[in-house]
Amino acid sequence: MEAPAEIRVVRCGGSRITFRKAVFTLDSKFLLCPSGDAIKVFSSSTEECVHVLQGHANLVTGIVLNPSNHLQVYSCSLDGTVKLWDFTDGILIKTYVVGPSIFSIHVSKKHDGVVFLVVPMASNKSQEVYQLVALHLPRSPGQEVEAKEMSAVICDISPLPRAISFGREGEYIASAKGVQLSVYFFRKQKEYRFSLKATDKKGAKNSFPCVSCHPEDDCIATGHADGKIRLWRNFNQKKEYTYSTEQWHHSAVAALTFSPQGTKLLSGGTESVLVQWHYGAVTKKDFLPRLGSAIEHISVSPDGALYCTSHRDNKVIVIQSSLKVSAIIQGLVTGDDVQTELLIDPRTKALVLNGKPGHLQFYSLHRDKQLYNLDIVQQEYIHESGLRQYGVMQAAFDSDGAWLATVEERAEEDGGVDVSLKLWAFSDAAHSFQLNTTIYMPHEGHICSMCFRDGGETTTLVTTGRDGHFKAWVLAEDTDTQGISSHWSCEFVGDYHLLTPSACCFSADGSLLAVSFREVVTVWRPGTWELLATFSQPPGDIRDLCFGRLGCSKFLLGTTTEGVLCCWNLLTCSVEWSTALDVILLQSDPLSDNMAAFSAAAGSTDLFVFKPSEPRPLYSQKAVSSGVVRRAVFAPHQEALQSCEESAQWLNRSRLYFLSDNMDLMTFSIKSEEDRILASSKQLVVDDSVALTPFCLLLGKHRQAQRNEQDPLCEQVAARTQLPQRSTAVRELLHTPAHVLPPASHLCTMFVNSLLVSKPGVRGAQESEEEDMESEKEEEMGESEEEMESRDAAGRPAIQNEAADGTASLSKGQERELRQIRKADFSWVSAALDC
Question: Where would I find the WD repeats (predicted)?
């Protein structure tokens, strides 16, 4: 079954952000980093990823700001295109189709409408010789145009961007390759080449890894493999050039750049130290040490206030000009140091693997951000080759993420190995794992594999070693003066005919343990540790073991070194089926009964997804990766997908990730899921002046919830309160000449008060309170008047002539209501008549 068109193998989060030099925006608020086939826009203050510019079909090899528009950026890629982006909104403006693969891009203010590209020379088919060409960008209105007008500038140069630099605002360009420095003057259209000897009598290595030109003076700084820095002058004449030599680095200078004002020169290398040289007084230097990893690139903001260092461990550090670290952007650490399998933390659903030397990194696949590093070795790592230091070789989680087991090893001078097994307990108070038990030399030699038991009464860990034994470690509790404490101890040691064990795994319910001894598979019962059955599958030793899950839990699968994939039925103790397939990696989906098998074939790796109940694959794809895939893992989705295609249903619950031969983290993407993510990203509107932060997102959700709660109330108020339209007062205010109007200070107060709308309930309560107070005052005044009248009447005879009076007297309540009616405002009637 061939792969349908809707499933693609794509680079996912975790690509290198230090492959090329990062670029600051003009206002220094954002930092642009190439990352795989995309460009990530980070906030230089909050470290958050604001935008991801996606559109290239291959690796992005360089980015530069547009000199004529500081809100735009050019990018180049191995797909042979140059793209122009609006990085503030994340919009692709234009694509220039060049053709050949592009390895770096450069621009200059003096060359408007021209970008300089490093491409392979057409005459060399091996693509090992490169040239710098000037590409004239066409001004056609289309979004995708062909750009074929190119002219060669310098031939036989290095493809690395750090080996090319413009000088004096674009008057000349310098390029370094090997032991040769080339300088091309645009006005003269002449090139000068200067060479050094590869080595000298003192053993110096004079090759040029990097070059940087002074922005104002005729000075070129070159870094060398032996740690020297040379400042070249008078290079406009081939025979009269001079240079001075400075040195602080003890190994190769990997990065070198001048500040925009030319007052500082920054350098870095494997020492993990940023060196700041003062131009004109090179003996004066400032240092920022202990940056954690070797420096590969250095960038400076346009105003010179911020520096940026890109490190070998996929880390970007933003540094103030006073040499104080202000932000650290850590990507996924991959490389040859990855020894553990790819694991998923059951608590955080984060990807767990080797990080910094001696550490495990917890990386969120959904947020594409490192959560934290866990120090396993707990020793300072020394960056020097030849030293024997501890390294984390294996790791495993239990089912609920409460325990973590790690294995660290160090090679000894006599050929032996020093091994430590550490058990870590998760602490809710510290929100991290804390060391519980350390077991020195659990086996006499390397530990081959280990796994936790799920579903048992006691937490159990099984390890297999080169000493011919497998051991079961159980968690026990002790009571002492400080309370109840837990520790790990060995409960059982097993072997089989003096053979060396390799792979081990528990069934999904923890009732069975399978351990392979060469070509024999043994099945044990945990707890009693009774040998239940043995399976033999010659030829070849067992490479990997895996129990089926859910509806396929009665099957046990194994792969051999001779290219056989075998499935045993545990109920009948017989072979269910077998096939000739060189499976180098076998993974089971914890949320379904699917399994993924990676098979090596003709220099690439094929993928087969199947259920153990039948050998027919559900999905297969040839050459998912060039080279050999050694590590893979299923990670659960945050929300289950709804795929109608039968061949894509295996991706509904989990997503399969794997590390390619180039240590790139790859995954499988469905077109419907890509459309959903694209639609959700378009709904996010980011203000240019405010960087998107977790607090901003939380506050936005809170405000949206408040808005939703207030919407019904606002609609009711709007329905009850209809403001008068075409008000006479407003019309007169707008049409009356200004010289006859009252002072603006008097009109402003009246106008603003007319726009205020108070809450009906509050306004009615206030009016009723005011009316009651006024009525009480009037009653008091009426009572005082009656008392005075009564006193006057007592002094003279009373006249009783009710018949002569034609009207009846009103009560006090009726008089109070009459006074309230007189004070009522009926201006709304006139306003309604005017409308």
Answer: 53-95, 246-277
For range 495-507, the mean pLDDT: 92
- The 3-state secondary structure of 188-241 reads CCEEEEEECCCECCCCCECCCCEEEECCCCCCEEEECCCCEEEEEECCCCCCCC
Q: Cα torsion at 36, 38, 42, 47 (round to 10°)? A: -40
Give yes or no for residue 636 having a pLDDT over 60: yes
| Cα–Cα distance measured from residue 237 to residue 191, given in angstroms and rounded to the nearest whole number | 10
Q: CA-CA distance, 545 to 543, in Å (whole number)?
A: 7
**How is residue 363 written in tokens?**
């990386």
Tokens at 211, concatenated: 């070059």
Buried/exposed 97-114: b ≥16 CB within 10 Å, e otherwise: ebeebbbbbbbbeebeee
Retrieve residue 475's tokens: 């968690």
Q: Residues 322, 307: contact at Cβ < 8 Å?
A: no
Are 122 and 113 in contact by the 8 Å Cβ rule? The answer is: no
CA end-to-end distance (rounded Å), the chain: 75
CB distance 589 to 575 below 8 Å: no
Distance CA 20, CA 36 (A): 10
Strand-pairing partners, residue 40, are: 33, 52
Closest CA to 316 of 83, 35, 540: 35
Higher pLDDT residue, 367 or 44? Answer: 44
Rounded distance between C-alpha atoms, residue 253 and residue 261, angstroms: 22
Estimate to the nearest angstrom the gap between the alpha carbon of 678 and the chain centroid. 17
What DSSP character marks residue 160? -
User: Of the given ranges (13-17, 418-422, 823-827), which has the lowest mean pLDDT?
Assistant: 823-827
Mention every residue, 6+ apart, whose C-beta is less than 8 A from residue 594. Answer: 588, 609, 610, 611, 618, 650
Instruction: Give which of 496, 437, 433, 439 is closest to 470, Cα–Cα.
Output: 496
625 in helix, strand or coil? strand
Q: Can you tell me the distance from the alpha carbon of 235 to that of 218, in angstroms, rounded to the nearest whole number?
A: 8
Helix (H) or strand (E) holding 751: helix 744-755
3-state secondary structure 335-398: CCCCCCCCEECCCCCCEEEECCCCEEEEEECCCCEEEEEEECCCCCCCCCCCCCCCEEEEEEEC
